[in-house]
Write a structure and sequence with these properties.
CATH superfamily of the largest domain in chain B: HUPs
CATH superfamily of the largest domain in chain A: P-loop containing nucleotide triphosphate hydrolases
Largest sheet of chain A: 6 strands, mixed
Number of strands of chain B: 8
Oligomer: heterodimer
Order of helices and strands of chain B: HEHEHEHHEEEHEEHH
Number of domains of chain A: 4
Number of strands of chain A: 29
Largest sheet of chain B: 6 strands, mixed
Number of helices of chain A: 16
CATH class of the largest domain in chain A: Alpha Beta
Structural class of chain A: alpha+beta
Helix content of chain A: 25-40%
Shape of chain A: elongated
């Protein structure tokens, strides 16, 4: 990755072309990063008027000597402690183009802030103090940059004034650090001897170091480039949300990589369903132009298929990996160590899933790069583990070296990020092959929360009601299949499995109908309490019976979702799949709902589907869309 | 192989829309403070882009009762134009106690009439997220902000221990009583804002344009907001003026400069 420094590079002019280059400054605590940045801002004329006087006055008032670092470390605490606590971002310009400087803290305590700053960077400047040489964070930061995939960087050997601008001293540090970087397969662009305090080799060359053949820092920065949007990688469109603010059903999300065109056939993982892009919506009105990596867009589809947040759209020939087990390098930044028996929430692009670390095969100290081979049980703060993660349901991902955006994830505890990881060694298989489902277990007391955590969803009663022939059973089984494919635990209760066994002693008299529904309600409650998604498919014509079913479910702490499967009587009678309407009309069946017995439609059901206007798949999609958010395990997982 | 590219503004816009949509997904009870200032109007614009022509949550104006009349006029016009669900909040209690610029220093008044008013209205509506228009380039304390920045039950910002945030993943679980500040404009600069207003033709109050040799660069309460000398009557002229100035944007906002670290103190206590 050697880069030739050309004499003078023409400024990138005009506003339309340039994108700011984001450069993170990292290095060991007290090696002078903030001073370097302060000096850089000052020497390139990037400070607001009066800023330096203001800080100088403040220093005089406090009886402190002025330092360029104060320009950045504007927070009170940081001035008092004289170290940078959090990452800060400052826009800045050279004659050539604009930058965003990211100042990342060097103290070990603040590694999470260093990562927060560095993860957004296009390039990095690693700062080493000449008088101290390579230290713990100098190494750790290089390792983290490598892990984050930042490849452009240069090294500034700062504080050269402390070592009498000695070339010999500089070369020693350069050799030392290059040797370390080589073990990471990293090759910095240049090593720059500099003194931020005196402004040597920052914006201007140095008369004190005539032996130096490296460029100034500004020249080196001007050689770095903003990362181009990865338009040439395979398409990954990550769904953020489904919006139905008006008659349109817009799938909103961001193109992480690749390019999307109207008319493209897109496969959505993990459901593995395809549809064709009807339109690409850009906020204020739709356009026909393609959308590319980095674009936040909305799309509409030609055929309505079920899609929800977390789904990933791709082209068929370049689909991502779908799995529930993967290898990762995980860096742990929380105080509390990572442990094998814990259930974590993970986020990968817009997917959120529960997972567990099933084995830690190797632990790496990110500063010494010392590896501890063999199975470990914990991962402490600032350690990196090579490990295996198992998830509850199928997750869509890529290998980090192929598509970084889908090859990285974070783990959260109590809504806060505790780790970041990159995915390696996943195998791409052709779509449609059967995937193995791994069995998952947890220990402990069996509370509703524990059950929900293990199942990955809560127990719920989904109560379908509607006329005979409205499509309850078909929809119930369609819904059951969809949930089952999501590694959930659905079960359909209908006439077939209830009337012949549990309720075989009941007929169709009004009293028997009431008792039938009561028993179904009780069974549904028990099964929901056991953690299942119970789908009942009974006509259940009486409002009062359904209200009681709801009360029984609530007694068992199960949510009750009433779904009105609505179709006009005429349509149902025309369908008449079991010839029941015909028999009722002929008087062969008495008290048949809709003919000579009433049907009381729900007053305020949670969900309504119109099966005379929708296909079965559309009805199932609509139910899923509203049902899935209610199934989320988080609500009860806390206990 | 594609040859389409995106400009700096395109990228900022997409990033902001992404943040808006993440916030809308993660938080059930959102409000968006709206000062009618230029950044605020860019926020409204980005919200309508994110949600295909609408702002699907209430917009909040903290009315200090020291508003410029032109701003109130603009408020009425924009509320109707964007079909906003506008909530106006005045800290009546503090006004009744006589808190005002006539008798108190600007830091006290700003705290009472803006921050405390905000605390009151958040408690009334139990919002779990506020979408703000702050930018990193405005002030050194804002330079350290996160896109999703939690505030505790006392509305304090724990800038010493901020949650990590990377790869488009944010901290999203405020405890009861806490809320999260969502800041989609964090990466924008003052010039970006102007160029975007120009490109998208976003309506803004006319006080930003020069009249009688002066204009407002940043808008706050009328008694403590000073205009700058300027002849810029178009956005093009404003941008040219900004390109050649090195005075800070909030130089005309008295509460920031009342004492050393005034801005940090205000913000730690809950100021936007």
């Amino acid at each position: 990755m050697e880069v030739k420094i050309t004499e003078k590079t023409a400024p990138v002019s005009g506003f339309q072309s340039p994108v700011s280059v984001k450069v993170v400054f990292v290095g060991h605590v007290d090696h002078g990063k903030s001073t370097l940045i302060g000096r850089l801002l000052h020497d390139t004329g990037s400070l607001p008027e009066g800023k330096i006087e203001q800080v100088q006055n403040a220093c005089r008032a406090e009886g402190m000597e002025f330092e360029y670092a104060f320009l950045l470390d504007a927070l009170l605490e940081e001035q008092e402690q004289n170290i940078t606590i959090d990452t800060t971002q400052i826009p800045f310009k050279t004659a050539r183009r604009s930058y965003v400087i990211i100042d990342a803290p060097g103290h070990k305590e603040f590694l999470k802030n260093m990562i927060t700053g560095a993860a957004n960077a296009d390039a990095a400047v690693l700062v080493i103090a000449a008088d101290e040489g390579v230290r713990e964070q100098t190494k750790r930061h290089a390792y983290i940059l490598n892990l984050l995939g930042i490849q452009q960087f240069c090294v500034v050997v700062n504080k050269m004034d402390m070592v009498d601008f000695s070339e010999h001293h500089f070369r020693e540090i350069e050799q030392d650090y290059r040797a370390f970087l080589r073990t990471l397969n990293l090759e910095p662009r240049v090593f720059i001897p500099a003194s931020a305090r005196l402004g040597e080799n920052i914006a201007h060359g140095s008369a004190k170091m005539r032996w130096n053949d490296a460029p100034t820092l500004v020249e080196a920065l001007d050689q770095m480039t903003a990362l181009a949007p990865p338009t040439d990688l395979p398409l990954r469109f990550c769904v953020q949300d489904i919006y139905r603010f008006d008659e349109r059903r817009i799938i909103a999300g961001r193109i992480e990589t690749g390019t999307l065109n109207v008319g493209d056939e897109i496969v959505f993982s993990p459901a593995n369903k395809t549809s064709i892009i009807r339109s690409i919506e850009h906020g204020n009105g739709s356009g026909s132009g393609p959308a590319i990596a980095g674009d936040s867009i909305g799309i509409t589809l030609r055929e309505q298929i079920f899609v929800e947040r977390g789904y990933v759209g791709s082209h068929q020939k370049d689909a991502p990996i779908e799995t529930n087990r993967f290898h990762a390098d995980l860096f742990w930044i929380a105080r509390q160590p990572a442990s094998l028996d814990h259930l974590y929430t993970a986020r990968l692009a817009t997917q959120e899933f529960r997972c567990q670390i099933v084995s830690i095969d190797e632990v790496l100290d990110s500063a010494s790069l010392e590896r501890t081979q063999g199975a470990a049980k914990e991962l402490a703060r600032n350690e990196v583990g090579r490990l295996i993660i198992q998830t509850r349901a199928a997750v869509v991902l890529d290998n980090h070296d192929r598509i970084p955006n889908l090859g990285r994830f974070v783990l959260l505890q109590d809504g806060v990020i505790v780790a970041g990881g990159t995915i390696h060694g996943g195998v791409y298989t052709a779509r449609g092959s059967i995937k193995s489902k791994n069995i998952f277990w947890t220990e402990g007391k069996i509370t509703p929360g524990a059950r929900a955590a293990q199942h990955g969803h809560r127990g719920v009663v989904v109560w379908l009601t509607g006329l005979s022939g409205a499509g309850k059973s078909t929809i119930a089984h369609g819904l059951e299949r969809e949930l089952f494919q999501r590694a959930m635990h659905p079960y359909v209760l209908d006439g077939d499995n209830i009337r012949h066994g549990l309720n075989s002693n009941l007929g169709f008299s009004p009293e028997d109908r009431v008792e039938n529904i009561r028993r179904v309600s009780e069974v549904a409650k028990l099964m929901a309490d056991a953690g299942n998604v119970v789908i009942t498919a009974f006509i259940s014509p009486y409002r009062l019976d359904r209200e009681r079913a709801r009360a029984i479910a609530l007694e068992g702490n199960a949510e009750f979702v009433e779904v009105f499967v609505d179709a006009p009587l005429s349509v149902c009678e025309q369908r008449d799949p079991k010839n029941l309407y015909r028999k009722a009309r002929a008087g062969q069946i008495r008290e048949f709902t809709g003919i000579d017995a009433p049907y009381e439609p729900p007053v305020d059901p949670e969900i309504v589907v119109h099966t005379d206007q929708q296909t079965v798949e559309e009805s199932v999609s609509e139910i899923l869309e509203q049902l899935l958010p209610r199934l989320k395990a988080e609500a009860v997982v806390a206990n | 192989m594609t040859h389409i590219s995106r400009t700096h503004l395109d990228r900022l816009e997409s990033q902001s829309i992404f943040i808006f949509r993440e916030a809308y997904h993660f938080f059930k009870n959102i409000a968006m403070p709206w000062s009618m200032g230029k950044d605020s109007n860019v926020l409204i614009w980005l919200a309508t882009k994110s949600f295909f022509g609408r702002v699907p949550f209430p917009v909040l104006h903290i009315d200090t009762t020291y508003e410029f009349p032109e701003m109130l006029e603009f408020r009425a016009w924009a509320t109707a134009h964007y079909k906003l669900n506008l909530i106006v909040k005045v800290n009546e209690e503090a006004r009744a106690r006589g808190i005002g610029y006539e008798t108190h220093d600007p830091v006290t008044v700003t705290h009472e009439l803006k921050t405390v008013a905000l605390q009151q209205v958040i408690a009334e509506h139990k919002w779990d997220a506020l979408i703000t228009g702050i930018r990193r380039d405005e002030d050194p304390t804002r330079a350290k902000e996160r896109y999703f920045s939690p505030r505790n039950a006392q509305f304090e910002w724990d800038y010493k221990d901020q949650p990590p945030e990377f790869w488009g993943q944010f901290a999203t679980a405020p405890a009861p009583g806490e809320h999260v500040r969502v800041q989609p404009l964090l990466d924008w600069t003052e010039i970006d804002i102007w160029r975007y207003i120009q490109r998208e033709k976003i309506p803004i109050p006319k006080m930003y344009f020069a009249q009688n040799g002066q204009r407002y660069r940043s808008l706050g309460c009328s008694p403590i907001t000073k205009p700058v000398r300027s002849s810029a009557t178009t956005i093009e002229e404003i941008i040219r003026e900004l390109d050649s100035t090195r005075t800070s944007e909030r130089a005309g906002r008295a509460q920031d400069h009342h004492e050393r670290n005034a801005m940090q103190k205000l913000r730690a206590k809950g100021f936007l």
